[in-house]
Amino acid sequence: MWNHGGMVLPRDYTRQNCSMARALEIVGERWTLLIVRDAFFGVRRFSDFSRHLDVPRAVLTERLGLLVAEGVLEREPGPRGGYLLTDKGRALWPVLRALVGWGDEYCAPRGPRRLFDHAGCGGRIDPDGRCRDCGAAVAAADTVMSPGPGFDPPVGDEVVTAALARPRRLLEPIR
Amino acid sequence: MWNHGGMVLPRDYTRQNCSMARALEIVGERWTLLIVRDAFFGVRRFSDFSRHLDVPRAVLTERLGLLVAEGVLEREPGPRGGYLLTDKGRALWPVLRALVGWGDEYCAPRGPRRLFDHAGCGGRIDPDGRCRDCGAAVAAADTVMSPGPGFDPPVGDEVVTAALARPRRLLEPIR
DNA sequence: ACGTTCGGTTCGGTCATTGAACCGACATGT
DNA sequence: ACATGTCGGTTCAATGACCGAACCGAACGT
């Protein structure tokens, strides 16, 4: 393995002299952003990430460890504590929102799969993160996510999949 | 190889029922977002991407081919035509801006490496893409990028690296 | 005409990812 | 007490992706 605890110049985006390259060293690997997305959706436990994402558990172990080491997630105290987003992790919300917005516009012929509304006033949230009604920049914690027209009803009976089929406030734990 | 020209359900983020997973199928692989970033910076030619990113040329060939196949880039006509961002590609700018903003805030102790200003009125552009002075949402084509306090002066003498050390308007070709 | 650059392709070695099996600690049921 | 299941991982062999270097024909510079 390449990193974990040692020096923190992994891959070799290093020479790029660009903050995006640094950011991608942390969240640019396969599965990582999907793990962070699930954390925004309220997933906190190893087994829930594993079942919902269907990622190999060895990879999940490595990614969660890296995200904790980089300060994106933190471990809940206790023997079987979950993984929670830190401030640094919650600051990734604009990145995820922008990616979802792009995917909705160009990769979702039946329209958005998930809609994001401002919990305060109920207005739809624009692609750039502003409430269409009150104009405020809306944080993840004030965002309510509901299934959109492109949403496919889930087939499995997992707790996580089922929970995401109903309107939910972001960051609220699923269990 | 897994895709290229055939059906378009590569990897297996497929079951995720989320536009972000679809987006990551296109731009989530190693190097891809850095290639797109360079395209915003005005890079158009295979050899310039290759030199500036120091990516293996076989990988660059594959990534450029995939981005063209997905409609993010298009090929300039002619024998040695460059790679240009399409509308779909230019729509990725908010994603890159958000990533750069996050990296600047959490991975750049000496401050931002690149500053983004509104070409119209000269105001700094906020992390969410608005001009601090005039309040408008600024498109990439109206953005001027300059070196910031965290910028390290380049060592090499490549055309691309040298060009990025001076203020430049995004999407303007480097040569 | 000649060397150089461009835009790749091919190749072997290395590294990462995958799916499956395995594991101890803990909880639950009977 | 005992069995059975869940949780949070680790280990392993096989596959796939990536890397660096070499090679190649077509276009360009002079």
Automatic annotation (TrEMBL), chains A, B:
<protein>
    <submittedName>
        <fullName>Transcriptional regulator, HxlR family</fullName>
    </submittedName>
</protein>
<dbReference type="InterPro" id="IPR036388">
    <property type="entry name" value="WH-like_DNA-bd_sf"/>
</dbReference>
<dbReference type="InterPro" id="IPR002577">
    <property type="entry name" value="HTH_HxlR"/>
</dbReference>
<dbReference type="InterPro" id="IPR036390">
    <property type="entry name" value="WH_DNA-bd_sf"/>
</dbReference>
<dbReference type="GO" id="GO:0003677">
    <property type="term" value="F:DNA binding"/>
</dbReference>
<keyword id="KW-0238">DNA-binding</keyword>
<feature type="domain" description="HTH hxlR-type">
    <location>
        <begin position="18"/>
        <end position="111"/>
    </location>
</feature>
<keyword id="KW-0804">Transcription</keyword>
<keyword id="KW-0805">Transcription regulation</keyword>
<dbReference type="Pfam" id="PF01638">
    <property type="entry name" value="HxlR"/>
</dbReference>
